[in-house]
Amino acid sequence: MSKVFPRIGRRRALQGSAAGFVAFGLLLWWLLPLGEEPPTGTITFSTGTLRGVYQEYGERLRTELGRDMPGLKVKLVQSAGSYENVRRVATGQADFTIAAADAVETYELNDGQGADRMRGVARLYDDYVQLVVGRDSGITSIAQLRHKRVAIGLPNSGVRLIANRVLGAAGIDPAKDITPVAEGIDTGPDQLRRGKIDAFFWSGGLPTKGLRDLAKKFSFTFVPIDGSLVNKLHSEGEAALFYRATNMPESAYPSVQHGTTVATIAVSNLLMTRKDMDPRLTEWVTRTVIKSRDDIGAHVHSAQLVDLRTAIYTDPLPLQEGARRYYRSVKP
Q1: Of the four, 18, 84, 182, 312, which is 20 to 30 A from 162 by CA?
Q2: Residue 242 neighbours by CB under 8 Å, 6+ apart
Q3: What are the beta bridge partners of residue 130?
Q4: Regarding beta strands 118-134 and 199-204, do their DSSP bridges make them parallel or antiparallel, or are they unpaired?
Q5: CA distances from 201 to 79, 115, 193, 255, 276 (A)
Q6: Cβ atoms within 10 A of the Cβ of 89, count?
């Protein structure tokens, strides 16, 4: 037998091994920085209310961070929602959080303490405004909320910010024309089911566990928020410019929507931190957020929308240095 063929086979084997090694190296580079020990220590992550997407996403992200950084302890702290989250990070009470862009802008416009220290890590997914009423309530428009008992979210929540703006744009004074009730996604669904309120606002990713659970035991529907109201909000400028008209897809809550979409408002969610946060830690956190999209998205549907191409757009916040380093490292 000719000895040429074994030599060629060995050469190809070596080439194949080299290619495999390079591919493996590139995979490691994408997942974890080569030759670099993972950051350690303790960070505080402010989430949201029980049964909300912020809380569920925070729990899943903590698990993913633990895999990449075993020496990093992530402490989750519940909150009322976006506005409280923003304040906690800005004032150093938390290190990372998720908040809606309109809440971030509102905090800046209000000259909140530490607003100049806030930085973006990643644009995550969109919140959708979900105005919920009982199916037999007869309420089909925002105007019909007048003189009703309406849950407008907890104080310092992003829900309350957007609910008050939506009601105002529809010509309803939240303080005079309705009976405002401070309920969030953790308690609002049960209050509606028991007839304690007539409607409640929620702003969150799709679908939200609290509403999926409600659909199993109570017949409800969504009140549409049409584009003309969004245009009116835009005319007010400032934080309202972060709202956009959209449709809640029919797949969000199939047993409720029965194949129909719902006109509503969306606003982007941002993962945020502070300027003084360790850039190396922030870079690792950013990497984990991007690479864990599918694992988290298998449980938190809205997380499937996290995208490397759009994650860098954290307006109104500039990117934190560590996040910028990561995005530059993976830029084509």
Answers
A1: 312
A2: 100, 101, 102, 105, 267, 268, 316
A3: 202
A4: antiparallel
A5: 17, 27, 14, 19, 35
A6: 28
32 band by pLDDT with thresholds 50, 70 and 90: low
Residue 51 pLDDT: 87
Tokens of 222: 């969504």
Residues 244-249, mean pLDDT to the nearest whole number: 97
pLDDT tens digits for 206-233? 999 999 999 999 999 999 999 999 999 9
Residue 238 CB coordination number (10 Å): 11
Residues 82, 107: Cα–Cα separation, whole Å: 10
pLDDT tens-digit profile of 162-212?
999 999 999 999 999 999 999 999 999 999 999 999 999 999 999 999 999
Give the closest residue to 150 by CA, choosing from 297, 99, 142, 265: 142
| Residue 156 falls in which region: left (phi positive, over 0), alpha (psi -120 to 50) or beta | left
The pLDDT of residue 302: 87
Scanning the chain, the segments in alpha helix (DSSP H) are 4-31, 53-68, 82-90, 101-109, 158-169, 188-193, 209-215, 227-235, 254-257, 279-291, 293-297, 308-311, 321-329
**Residue 33 confidence class, pLDDT cut points 50, 70, 90:** low
Distance, C-alpha 163 to centroid of its chain: 18
Six token digits for residue 279: 């850039």
